[in-house]
Write a structure and sequence with these properties.
Blueprint: E1 3-7, H1 11-24, E2 34-39, H2 41-54, E3 58-62, H3 78-84, E4 93-99, E5 104-109, E6 112-117, E7 123-129, E8 132-140, E9 142-146, H4 154-157, E10 169-175, E11 186-189, E12 194-198, E13 206-210, E14 213-216, E15 218-224
Parallel strand pairs: 1-2, 2-3
Antiparallel strand pairs: 4-5, 4-15, 6-9, 6-13, 7-8, 7-12, 9-10, 10-11, 12-15, 13-14
């Protein structure tokens, strides 16, 4: 089996890199049948972004801290493990964002799409789900939509729920909500279209991010799986 190893830069991953490459070899990603990510969840997500471009599966070996997305590390029997692995289909989110100059920005996110305030003033955001307004004014530091894969990342830090991998829901999670103060978010069907509208974006500017891709001065965002 042609394997491309995507190895994290942390100490635990580097310690096993030579033995893995010696045992199983390394091919260019364009010639690989599978990507084996070695590290933590960050390494897995980076490999998954590569897999979108090359349309090949990813298998994770945990040499990180938490490793929620990873399999237990072992250098032995890797080929057998790859052949017997259960496949889970992961769907990224698509962010379509419009800035205050009406320019369109489109990007994919495996973890989450989030918007954040850019000044000392809170952001004020309205939220629609499938063209129905569900919250007319959320005053907050920001808000995000997280996939099950991303639910253990920033979403969890913002007190959002952990979603089972393969579940057909998304987490809608506020970041430091001021009003309504007790709103803690919602679970949304994964076939929904979520729309964020920024109220007074020039006075209260926000940025939008799809994983590591960021756009500034946003006025409207559509998010769908």
């Amino acid at each position: 089996m042609n394997i491309h190893f995507s190895i994290a830069k942390n100490k635990k991953a580097k310690m096993v890199s030579n033995e893995l490459l010696t045992l199983y070899g390394q091919v260019e990603i364009s010639k690989a049948e599978v990507i084996v990510a070695v590290g933590g969840d960050g390494a897995m997500l980076a490999a998954m972004r590569q897999s979108i471009l090359h349309d090949i599966p990813v298998f994770g070996l945990n040499r990180g801290n938490i490793g929620f997305l990873m399999n237990e590390y072992s250098k032995s029997n890797l080929i057998d493990r790859l052949k017997k692995a259960n496949e889970i289909i992961v769907h990224p989110l698509e962010m379509i964002a419009f800035d205050t100059k009406n320019q369109k920005h489109t990007e994919l996110a495996i973890n989450e799409v989030a918007i954040f305030r850019r000044t000392h003033q809170s952001a004020i955001i309205s939220i629609k789900i499938d063209d129905t307004e569900r919250l007319n004014e959320l005053t907050c530091d920001g808000v995000m939509v997280a996939t099950p894969v991303g639910s253990t990342a920033y979403n969890l830090s913002a007190h959002g729920p952990i979603l089972p991998i393969g579940s057909e829901i998304l987490a809608l999670t506020p970041i430091s909500p001021f009003r309504p103060r007790r709103w803690r978010g919602a679970l949304i069907k994964n076939n929904s279209i979520i729309e964020f509208n920024v109220i007074n974006p020039k006075m209260r500017p926000v940025s939008a991010s799809a994983d590591a891709f960021e756009v500034k001065n946003i006025k409207k965002i559509y998010i769908s799986q």
